Amino acid sequence: MPITVPFPAPADVIGNGESASEALRQEGLLKTGALQTAILTSANFSIIATDEKGIIQLFNVGAERLLGYQAAEVVNKISPSDMHDPVEVRARAQALSLELDTPIAPGFEALAFKASRGIEDVYQLTKIRKDGSRFPAIVSITALRDDYGEIIGYLLIGTDNSVRKQVEEKLNEALAAAEKANRAKTDFLSGMSHELRTPLNAILGFAQLMESGTPHPTPPQQRNLDQILKAGWYLLELINEILDLALIESGKVTLSQEAVSLAEVMLECRAMIEPQAQQRGIGMTFPHFETPYFVKADRTRVKQVLINLLFNAIKYNRPGGTVAVEYSISPPSSLRISVRDTGAGIPPELIAQLFQPFNRLGREAGKEEGTGIGLVVTKRLVELMGGVIGVDSAVGVGSVFWFELGLTSAHHLAVHEAGQAALVHAPLPEGTPLRTLLYVEDNPANLELVEQIIARRPDLRLLSAADGTLGIEYARAYLPEVILMDINLPGISGVEAMKILRADPLTAHIPIIALSANALARDIEKALAAGFFNYLTKPIKVNAFMEALDVAMQFAKAARTAAKETS
């Protein structure tokens, strides 16, 4: 705010008969004058005072030291703005003009504009020394007024900001380096995921074909296949957990915030986990929701959290044990899901180590495989969704793992979701004519796997192309029902090929499914945003693969029907 600067009157000689109060007043004035003199002669701050026109009237020792001028060179001669970068002064004038909706003020007027309106202003500008060198400065400017409120000048207090600027620049460089390292890490993870998933696709894909082929495998062959599939799916789980943890730690994981129906999620998790419980002789109970509850969370991640807790409750349970899933309202506005098991329990001294990466609490030598990553990922995901997670355990009795998420109201999507569910699970109509699929893939093992899967569907025939350019030609020539597109292709990428087909009126209607070993969420989101109809990751899960094909073919059929009606 505007200030009035009092200067002490010259001290009078104090006579012997002067009153004590007058002596104290004079002493106070002398002290005030000493303080003002100390401030004005400070070498640490540049203090400049101007008249109402902006011409320098006072130029202290600090100003001389910072700017290289002697007071006699500037007092009554120049304005402070003459020692600022003119380009920055003009830019400040334009910014103030927009901020205060006034004409652009030149020179010192631009610097004093807000101060003249009773608003103390602090700004950063580059100052120019007498020798032409420059340095960043922070300046505070205040209007000086007389007893009648009229502006009699301006006070500018400045300081060298070079050290702070250097620190900021180094910090920005460090942040840029960290961001670059994170990008490199994400790219490495994406590449590693692709390279690991590609051979796994062949291992798991052909093992699934052999398991379900005709004639059925002999008992020894089935045992061998079981071992191959068990090891393959475990390796895939390990890859997924490591990638999840790395993405969470780097802040790259993306979560949607939606109203998630707990009843629906519970049913889906139950269908996925009960077969494993039955194989191990574990009894399971799930709650019945009298009232529909919805939590604000990411649907996929809620399922991942619940399945992980359920699987652990089965894996570390006793033979013939039970797993019970329960829920309760946690005031004021959260819902708690609990997974209770009848396992050995966890000693109190080990509970604090539960959510540490790669810490299996001494169970490394046990028969159950594990990495010690799953619970860490689970905890981070719950916290990213705004929830909390915890555990209560008693040795010899069992453990209860629980997590809480915020309650919310449901969105009106039930009809749409039911329609989508019906579309996914709708059976193929009888008498369906032979339909053509095109698979653009350069890896022979992946191609052979898909050929054998499609060979089990007499209503389908498969064409293949080894690169994106040939795939475009085949698509235009044969107009397939659906196109399967690898992302990493020789020549043009699968994304580029897809965009060319989307831009061609002849092929724009054909649904294109990405089939790739790139499994990071970032890769999937980018591909779907680019225009792919769906995105399937390798290794292929045969049933899910065929369901996705059926959905795409029904979409293609509906598109053709709509086009005929329009024409």
Briefly note the structural class of the backbone.
alpha/beta
The CATH topology of the largest domain is Heat Shock Protein 90
- How many individual β-strands? 17
Can you tell me the number of structural domains?
A: 4
Q: Mean pLDDT, nearest integer? A: 81
Instruction: Estimate the strand proportion.
Output: 15-25%
The largest sheet, given as strand count, sense and whether it forms a barrel, is: 7 strands, mixed
Which segments are poorly predicted (pLDDT under 50) over 5 or more consecutive residues?
A: 1-17, 411-428
Helix content: 40-55%
Shape: elongated
CATH H-level homologous superfamily name of the largest domain:
Histidine kinase-like ATPase, C-terminal domain
* Quaternary structure state of the chains depicted: single chain
Q: What is the CA-atom radius of gyration, in angstroms? A: 37 Å
What is the count of helical runs? 17
Corresponding CATH architecture of the largest domain = 2-Layer Sandwich
CATH class of the largest domain: Alpha Beta
Rounded to the nearest angstrom, the distance between the terminal CA atoms is 74 Å
